[in-house]
Write a structure and sequence with these properties.
- The complex is a heterodimer of chains A (885) and B (115).
- Chain A has 885 residues and is an alpha+beta fold.
- Chain A folds into 5 domains: 2-78, Ubiquitin-like (UB roll), CATH 3.10.20.30; 87-189, [2Fe-2S]-binding domain (DNA polymerase, domain 1, Orthogonal Bundle); 201-289 and 346-438, Aldehyde Oxidoreductase, domain 3; 445-608 and 734-879, Aldehyde Oxidoreductase, domain 4 (2-Layer Sandwich); 613-723, Aldehyde oxidase/xanthine dehydrogenase, molybdopterin binding domain (Aldehyde Oxidoreductase, domain 4).
- In chain A, a hairpin with a 2-residue loop joins strand 9 (243-245) and strand 10 (248-249).
- The radius of gyration of chain A is 27 Å and the shape is globular.
- The mean pLDDT of chain A is 96.
- Chain B has a domain at 55-114: Arc Repressor Mutant, subunit A (Orthogonal Bundle), CATH 1.10.10.
- Helices cover 44% and strands 3% of the residues of chain B.
- Chain B has 5 helices and 2 strands; from the N terminus they run E-E-H-H-H-H-H.
- Chain B has helices spanning 38-47, 55-71, 77-84, 88-94, 98-106, and strands spanning 16-17, 20-21.
- Chain B has a two-stranded antiparallel ribbon.
- Chain B is globular.
- Chain B starts with 15 loop residues before the first strand and ends in a 9-residue tail after the last helix.
- Residues 1-19 of chain B have low confidence and may be disordered.
- The chains are: A alpha+beta (885), B mainly alpha (115).
- At the A-B interface, helix 12, strand 24 and strand 27 of A face helix 2 of B.
Chain lengths: 885, 115
């Protein structure tokens, strides 16, 4: 032990510490300063734990406390509070730099260190200063803007009040800071791993080292004797179904389907003791040959991943017109195969959950589960069935990014099972490596396409056969396949379509909801085929797209006749930028570094696809405020701002008196999930209906206030429901009406290719998006910038390999070094059935990105078009060996 | 495609029966709880092999409807027990399919699988 004296946030402390204690754990565990985050398994990769030590930005996860005697430490809590924030914290909130907010405290600390030494940094200096701070949400653009604004604040050039929209600015089309942004920027928002309770058990999980095996025996004898271990739970201890999905156990009982499958939960007084307990559990496995590719899985003699189920677990056709006849008659045809890769959504926050028993009115105690779900009412029901315990309340903590992966239960099941079993609070905080193992991924697609056109260049036929690697479990696999069919024909009028999608089990990581969930993959194939066909026809890619854009009255591949389709307007908006970029690229074709331009479009359906419903309630408060109730997760998209601004607009109640209750199954109506880019459209729509109910009632009785409403004996709370007029697809034809409305857009990538190394630098992406009425432009821009950045990762870098990708460097996480210039141009065509004319935007934005970048590479090098993602340097160099096609 | 309560295998979206027209999902749950009426409830009950809905059934159905239409979600079992004035065992016994897949389905609440 060593005696260490430290000043932390201005207070002096004396600690007696062992040599191994790091500053991060001192701050979080001993001082409860949980604004300092941890994401990268203490490897110094993420910057979430950055604090100032003697004015220098320091990774607190690597700083041994024993070496810090006499040091002056400032954590995020030392800068400001939501009521009295530091100017840098204000700048982050006002600039829209706070999405999920998990990285924000570390970012702000690094920004402070920079601004303390350089009061007026330029973009490159900011990028350099923040190069060790990771963010998945923003694409870094608004963070860089925030640091510049903070500099202006600190230099006295402007003030937060001058930059913040005033109360007279209105609420629609106004870039108000998110209501939660200062809570996040000041580090006081509680994420799951920040929650501690007296007597809380820490959990660790025994996981399979094999991807495919039978469990022959589990011996917990030695583990039970491990110091600090309270007990061990295996499948036989779970009183309910023990099934998270039909094919997915919470704890495996007989068979392992994927590396990392859970076998037992070890509960102990400390995490270290729980991990020691895990080491002491002996599991005897009988290893089975793993099925690691779809080709292997579809072979006749392949082992079955799941007993009682074929590896080909689902297929769905789509037939519109007569594609074969039309293809035969087409004057020009192209045929190609494309593939997209397994990708981790890579929310920065590791998986974590807490559970405890809450006294109830009766003997039947309530199990409270706190976690990272974006689908709390559904996950409540799943946990009820899994555990055989009905009296549960699910409470959502702040969520550190999600991008689809929090549509599935992970850590909640373990924490809830342990609390129920031991009747003690329990916390399960996963490592990053473990988080990667237990979460869903973006499904890989293999796609074989043909696209045909007539002599005028009008599309006549499209066929696509695609295989979706499901991985070990069917999370959203069927839905992802269907969503690919819903949006198969992209932005275009294709009279004849034939498609078949097949979903195939393997013993690999399992796919699930992942930003876009199916359409990004098939859109890459379609937009790439559009380029091939335009080239073969000798047509300009933009004109070719304009010629073939769907128009109101036409139908998509599901046969649905559409009413609104502002895609041509997006293309026209791009035209001057496209012409400028092409001119510039032409003058940069010589030498080692070659410039290229590529465009791609897309349209994205809003909602779950098929039946969809959201319930939201509003309540007029006695102080004249309004409370909105709905299970509307906000893992960074800005749903808090959307609800607040729409409610304020419709009621004339100031934004600061709009209160949101959105995280608790006991207190909220079921608004379904925060997925499918549906929240503004469906839950915003439901809230509008609830407000209409309130206003109608008040008008009927002439009430102007809460008191008059109550005096008239009327309710103050009103429920609104938004039900989509949609259907699933017919199982034999793939025809139906999956969505009421869509978001549209087109993107242009300008890239520079190093022809010696194959490295691609994105010079700029121009994104034209028409999401209907825009409630908060800054938030919409932030979604687009982050989505495009994620699309660029899909295009160029990211490829998750289960069991081998273990950290953020291995994942090729985007950094300020990979960040690029993004020009967002917003069009606003109000949608007839949108929420005040608005639809959603969060997922659409990465649909066109990969195809646009790959086309730009192709146009830069003149090599073969890259058809398999990611277009890494090796593939770029390979493509340059062959002539253009 | 959704189907009508008394034509379980039909793909028809709009088939009307006994003055009641509504869409159901693949598990036989009403797609829109607002489209529910007593005739539809009786049709669903018959499809589940129940000869008729008696007073006790209606006690449960009425509570589920009232709760859902005001709270926008299904009740927990403890709330159902208190609200319907019956024990959970009783409710499970009188509804084939139990609470989730019997009583809730007849009351026109959404499918718990996809809530």
């Amino acid at each position: 032990m060593k005696k260490v004296e430290l000043t932390i946030n201005g207070l002096m402390y004396t600690f007696y510490v062992d040599d191994q204690l790091v500053l991060l754990d001192l701050l979080r565990d001993k001082l409860c300063l949980t604004g300092t985050k941890q994401s990268c398994d203490r490897n110094g990769q993420c910057g979430s734990c950055t604090v100032l030590v003697n004015a220098k930005p320091t990774h607190s996860c690597r700083a041994k406390v024993a070496d810090l005697d006499g040091a002056d430490v400032i954590s995020i809590e030392g800068l400001g509070t939501p009521k009295n924030p530091h100017l840098i914290q204000e700048a982050f909130a006002i600039s829209g730099a706070v999405q999920c907010g998990f990285c924000t405290p570390g970012m702000i600390i690094s920004a402070k260190a920079l601004l303390d030494s350089n009061p007026d940094p330029n973009t490159d200096e900011i990028k350099k200063a923040l190069r060790a701070n990771l963010c998945r949400c923003t694409g870094y653009k608004k963070i860089i803007d925030a640091v510049k604004l903070a500099g202006r604040f600190l230099r006295g050039e402007t003030t937060p009040n001058q930059e913040r929209p005033d109360s007279f600015a209105g609420s629609i089309g106004v870039s108000r800071p998110r209501p939660n942004s200062l809570t996040l920027a000041c580090g006081v928002a509680k994420f799951s791993a920040d929650i501690r309770m007296d007597g809380m058990l820490e959990l660790a999980v025994v996981r399979s080292p094999y991807p495919h095996a039978l469990i022959k025996s589990i011996d917990t004898t030695k583990a039970q004797m491990t110091p600090g271990v309270v007990g061990i739970i295996t499948a036989k201890d779970i009183k309910g179904s023990n099934r998270l999905k039909d094919d997915q156990p919470l704890l495996c009982d007989k068979k392992i389907h994927v590396l990392g499958d859970a076998v037992a939960i070890v509960a102990a007084e400390s995490k270290t003791q729980a991990l020691a307990g895990v080491e002491a559990v002996k599991v005897e496995y009988e290893v089975i040959h793993p099925v690691m590719t779809t080709k292997e899985a579809l072979a006749q003699d392949s082992p079955q991943v799941h007993e009682g189920s074929m590896n080909l677990c689902y297929e769905h056709p789509q037939i519109k017109g007569d594609a074969e006849a039309a293809m035969n008659q087409a004057s020009t045809r192209v045929e190609a195969e494309f593939s997209t890769q397994l990708i981790h959504q890579a929310a920065l926050e590791p998986e974590a959950s807490v559970a405890y028993m809450e006294p109830d009115e009766e003997d039947n105690a309530k199990l409270v589960v706190i976690g990272r779900s974006i689908y709390i009412h559904h996950h409540l029901m799943v946990l009820q069935e899994v555990l055989g315990w009905n009296n549960i309340r699910y409470e959502q903590a702040f969520i550190g990014g999600q991008f689809g992966m929090k549509m599935d239960i992970t850590s909640e099941g373990m924490a809830a099972a342990a609390t129920l079993h031991f009747r003690r609070p329990a916390r399960y905080v996963c490592s990053l490596e473990e988080s990667m193992q237990i979460t869903t991924k973006r499904h890989p697609f293999e796609m074989k396409v043909r696209l045909g056109a007539d002599k005028q260049g009008k599309l006549t036929a499209y066929t696509i056969d695609f295989i979706v690697e499901n991985g070990a479990y069917t999370s959203a696999g069927k839905s992802v396949l269907n969503r690919a069919l819903y949006m198969l024909s992209g932005s275009y009028d294709i009279p004849n379509v034939r498609a078949k999608g097949r979903l195939v089990y393997t013993n690999n990581a399992w796919g699930g909801a992942a930003r876009g969930a199916g359409p990004p993959q098939v859109n890459f194939a379609l937009e790439s085929a559009m380029e091939l066909l335009a080239a073969k026809l000798g047509m300009d890619p933009l004109e070719f797209r304009l010629l073939n854009s769907l128009k109101p009255g036409g139908s998509i591949s599901t046969g649905q006749v559409i009413e609104e389709w502002p895609y041509p307007e997006c293309l026209e908006a791009l035209r001057p930028h496209y012409q400028r970029a092409c001119r510039e690229a032409t003058s940069n074709k010589d030498g080692r570094f070659k410039r290229g331009v590529g465009i791609a479009g897309g349209s994205f359906g809003i909602g779950r696809g098929g039946p969809d419903r959201s319930n939201v309630a509003v309540e007029l408060n006695s102080d004249g405020g309004l409370t909105v109730y709905g299970s509307i997760a906000d893992p960074g998209e800005g749903n808090d701002a959307m609800l607040t601004q729409i409610a304020s607009h419709l009621t004339d109640i100031p934004p600061e008196k709009i209160r949101l209750i959105i995280c608790d199954t006991d207190r909220t109506p079921d608004s379904s999930s925060a997925s499918g880019s549906r929240v503004t459209y469906m839950s915003g729509g439901a809230m509008i209906k609830a407000i209409e109910g309130l206003k109608t009632t008040m008008e009927e009785i002439g009430a102007k206030s809460y008191e008059e409403l109550v005096a008239a004996g009327k309710p103050t709370r009103f429920l609104g429901s938004r039900v989509a007029e949609t259907t699933l697809l017919d199982t034999t034809t793939g025809q139906g009406t999956p969505f009421e409305s869509r978001v549209h857009g087109v993107q242009m990538a300008e890239v520079e290719v190093d022809t010696e190394t194959g490295a691609v630098r994105i010079h700029k992406i121009t994104a034209i998006v028409d999401p209907g009425t825009i409630i908060n432009p800054m938030i919409v821009e932030g979604q687009i910038e982050g989505g495009v950045d994620m699309g660029a990762g899909m295009a160029l870098r990211e490829h998750y390999v289960h069991g081998k990708t273990r950290d953020w460097i291995g994942l090729k996480f985007p950094t300020t070094r990979t960040a690029f210039d993004i020009d967002v141009i917003l069009l606003q065509t109000p949608r007839k059935r949108g929420a005040l004319g608005a639809v959603g935007v969060g997922e659409f934005v990465l649909l066109p990105t990969a195809a646009a970048i790959v086309t730009a590479i192709h146009n830069a090098t003149g090599g073969t078009r890259i058809r398999d993602l990611p277009a890494n340097p090796q593939r770029v160099l390979e493509s340059m060996k062959s002539p253009s096609n | 495609m959704g189907h009508h309560a008394d034509t379980k295998t039909s793909d028809s979206d709009t088939t009307a029966a006994q003055g009641a027209s509504a869409l159901f999902d693949e598990d036989g749950f009403l797609l829109d709880p607002d489209a529910w009426n007593e005739t539809i409830a009786e049709n669903i009950a018959r499809a589940q092999g129940m000869a008729e809905l008696n007073e006790l059934h209606w006690q449960v159905i009425d509570f589920l409807r009232k709760y859902y239409m005001s709270m926008g979600k299904a009740p927990l079992n403890t709330e159902l027990r208190k609200g319907a004035g019956l024990s959970l065992t009783q409710i499970e016994r009188i509804f084939p399919g139990g609470i989730k897949f019997g009583a809730r389905r007849i009351a026109g609440l959404p499918n718990p699988k996809s809530c």
